[in-house]
Amino acid sequence: MGYAAAFLSKSVRRVVFVQSLLTLLVATASLSVQGWASAASACYGGAISILCAFLLGWRVHRAGELVWRGSKLGTLSLCLGMAERYGVALVGFALGIGVLELPAVPQIAAFAVSQFAYLAAARDGSPGYQS
After folding, report:
1. Which domain holds residue 30?
2. To the nearest 10°, the Cα dihedral for 94, 99, 101, 102?
3. How far apart are alpha carbons 59 and 57 in whole angstroms?
């Protein structure tokens, strides 16, 4: 595994870890305020966010491989990944709210709060020179 792939893997693991913590925080708050159904809904919303993080990491890795091989499809791969993540989130929310009939507010709140994991995990994530 090259340096860039190892760095990407470490970054994705860090983001998923922080997303999991934030999701558990929202789920705990939902449990104390509204009960088990609300906590399950928050966990489901966080799971959607975590799945999107894995998809982002996979697409970035794939785009890097395409560019490394000399292909000019790296940018297209990233754009397709963006559309893919929007689709996963949309379908996930539709299933959670419409089919599973989970409460919407905790689900969306956990998804939104877990997105802050990207900021929290980026604190020391620079691949540049480390002294």
Report:
1. 10-120
2. -50
3. 6
Q: Which two tokens stand for residue 51?
A: 């799945």
Structure tokens of 3? 């340096």
CA distance 20 to 51: 11
Q: Does 1 map to a domain?
A: no
The total number of structural domains in the chain stands at: 1
pLDDT in tens, 79-98: 888 999 999 999 999 999 99
DSSP assignment letter at 95: I
**What is this structure's pTM?**
0.80
The two structure tokens encoding residue 18 = 């922080």
CA–CA gap between residue 37 and residue 60 (Å, rounded): 35
Flag whether 130 is in a domain.
no
